[in-house]
Write a structure and sequence with these properties.
single chain, alpha/beta, Lyase, Ornithine Decarboxylase, Chain A, domain 1, TIM Barrel, nine-stranded mixed sheet, 21 strands
C-alpha cells in the first residue's frame, strides 16, 4: 500500500543514505521515534493532515453560506478539538460529555449543534446554560438543538420555558427528519431508513413545526437529516437533500421560515480499495439544492476529517503457527481498536520499516494479526498478507484516526493507549497512557 492513498503527511523514506530499507514518517517525525518515546500501542495523529482536510472541504463550498460542524464522536481528543477550533470549525455533539470537552477548550456556544436521540433533561439544561469564553461569551446557550422525537421536544420545551423565564435567551431548534434514504458502509452505521432509531418521519415533523411555530420558548431555525456513515456516493445526499428542500418550501408556505439546512455527515474515506466520493461533485450537488432556499448549509463530517489522519502503532510480541495457521500477536487488541470485530472493518497493516518496493513483496504470507485479549474476536486483521516480522517489530495500522480511541475500553483490565499529535517537526502527548492506578481510582474498596 502507498501512504499517499491516505494523506501525503505520512510517507516512507530511506532509513539512511544508500539503504534498501524505508522508514515511515509522519510529517517530519519518524514514527519509530514516537513509539520509542511514547511506547505502544499508540494512536498518532497528523495535525497537518487534519488542517489540510478541513481547508479542502471548506474551500469546496466556496461562497455558499455554510458551516462545517465537526462530529466530535469521531475523535474527541482535546488536542484534535483545539486544532479544529483554531481552524474555525463548528462542532456537532451527542452528549453532555462532549459539550464539556468543548467548554474546556473555550468553544463558543454559537459554534455547537446538539444532536442525538437520547438527550437527557440534565444535558439540555447544561446546553441551555452553556457559556463559551470567546467573542460570543455573552451569548448563552448553543447554536442549535436537533430534536429527534416528540417526547424529546416536550422536555426541551419545559426546560426552555424555565430557562427563558429565568432571563435566558430562547433556544434555536431543528427537527431531524428521517428521509428514508439508504446509505452507509455497514448496517450498524446506516441511519437514514424508517426502521432506524434516528429522527422522525416528515408527517410527524410537520405537525411539530406547525404546532410550535409561535412558541415563546423555542425558535425553529433549521431542519436536519443524517443518512449514515462511510458513504461513498454523492447520490444519496442529493436524494435526501431534495426531500429536505421540499420540506423547507412547505414550511415556508405555512409561516415557518428556516435559516439552516443540516445534511449531517457520513462522508466515506479509503480504508482498503474504496473509492471515496468526489468532493467537488458532493459540494456542487449540495450547493445546487441549498442555494435557492436562501438557507445556510450545515454539514457534520467526522471520519472524513480525522480518519486518514491517524494511525495506530503496535509492536509484535510473538509469532506463532498452529497447523499451518500463522498468527502475529501484537500489543494492540480489540479493546484498543474494536472496528474490525464490530463492523467487519478492514484496516491495512504495514511494517514501520520495510524493504523498498514499488509493489507487494514476494515474501508476504497470509497471517492473522491478533491481540492479547481472551476473545476469538480479538483481531486487527485476518488472512492478511504481511511481510515476515519478528518479536519487537513495529507495525502500523492505517486509517485509525476516527472511531479508534473513542471506542476503546479497559476490557481485560488493559490500559488504554497513549495518543500523540504531530505538528511539523514536533510531536507531543495529547493523552497519556493510563496507569493501573487510573483503572481502579473510581472503585470503592469494600474492605475499607
Amino acid at each position: 500500500m502507498d501512504p499517499a492513498d491516505y494523506t501525503p503527511c505520512f510517507a516512507y523514506r530511506p532509513s539512511r543514505a544508500g539503504a534498501r530499507e524505508e522508514a515511515l514518517w509522519c510529517e517530519s517525525v519518524a514514527v519509530a521515534s514516537i513509539a520509542d518515546a511514547a511506547g505502544t500501542p499508540a494512536y498518532v495523529y497528523s495535525g497537518g493532515a487534519i488542517e489540510a482536510g478541513y481547508q479542502r472541504l471548506d474551500r469546496a463550498f466556496g461562497a455558499l453560506p455554510h458551516a462545517i460542524c465537526y462530529a466530535v464522536k469521531a475523535n474527541s481528543n482535546l488536542g484534535v478539538l483545539r486544532l479544529l477550533a483554531r481552524l474555525g470549525s463548528n462542532f456537532d455533539i451527542v452528549s453532555g460529555g462532549e459539550l464539556d470537552r468543548l467548554r474546556r477548550i473555550g468553544v463558543a456556544g454559537t459554534r455547537i449543534v446538539f444532536s442525538g436521540v437520547g438527550k437527557t433533561r440534565e444535558e439540555m439544561r447544561e446546553a441551555l446554560g452553556y457559556r463559551g469564553t470567546g467573542k460570543s461569551s455573552r451569548h448563552s446557550g448553543i447554536l442549535l438543538f436537533n430534536v429527534e422525537s416528540e417526547a424529546e421536544l416536550e422536555v426541551l420545551l419545559e426546560e426552555a420555558a424555565r430557562h427563558v423565564k429565568a432571563g435566558g435567551e430562547r433556544p434555536s431548534a431543528a427537527i431531524r427528519v428521517n428521509p428514508d434514504v439508504a446509505a452507509g458502509g455497514h448496517k450498524h452505521i446506516s441511519t437514514g431508513k424508517h426502521h432506524h432509531k434516528f429522527g422522525v418521519d416528515w408527517e410527524t415533523a410537520r405537525k411539530l413545526y406547525l404546532a410550535h411555530k409561535s412558541s415563546p420558548w423555542i425558535a425553529w431555525r433549521g431542519i436536519s437529516a443524517h443518512l449514515g456513515s462511510q458513504i461513498l456516493s454523492t447520490e444519496p445526499y442529493g436524494r435526501g437533500l431534495e426531500r429536505l428542500a421540499a420540506h423547507v418550501h412547505e414550511l415556508s408556505a405555512n409561516g415557518v421560515c428556516l435559516e439552516s439546512v443540516d445534511m449531517g455527515g457520513g462522508l466515506g474515506i479509503r480504508y482498503t480499495d474504496e473509492q471515496p466520493l468526489d468532493l467537488a461533485e458532493y459540494a456542487r450537488t449540495l450547493s445546487r439544492i441549498v442555494r435557492p432556499l436562501g438557507c445556510k448549509l450545515l454539514i457534520e463530517p467526522g471520519r472524513w476529517l480525522v480518519g486518514a489522519a491517524g494511525v495506530l502503532l503496535t509492536r509484535v510480541i510473538y509469532v506463532k503457527q498452529n497447523r499451518g495457521k500463522k498468527f502475529v500477536i501484537v500489543d494492540a487488541a480489540m479493546n484498543d481498536l474494536i472496528r474490525p470485530v464490530l463492523y467487519a472493518a478492514e484496516h491495512p497493516i504495514t511494517s514501520a520499516l520495510r524493504v523498498a518496493s514499488n509493489g507487494r513483496a514476494a515474501t508476504e504470507t497470509m497471517v492473522d494479526v491478533v491481540g492479547p485479549v481472551c476473545e476469538s474476536g480479538d483481531f486487527l486483521a485476518q488472512n492478511y498478507p504481511l511481510d515476515p516480522v519478528k518479536s519487537g517489530d513495529l507495525l502500523v495500522v492505517w486509517a485509525a484516526g476516527a472511531y479508534g480511541f473513542v471506542q476503546s475500553s479497559n476490557y481485560n483490565a488493559r490500559r488504554r493507549a497513549v495518543e500523540v499529535l504531530v505538528e511539523g517537526r514536533r510531536f507531543r502527548t495529547a493523552r497519556r497512557r493510563e496507569t493501573y492506578d487510573d483503572l481502579v481510582r473510581e472503585e470503592l474498596d469494600a474492605e475499607k
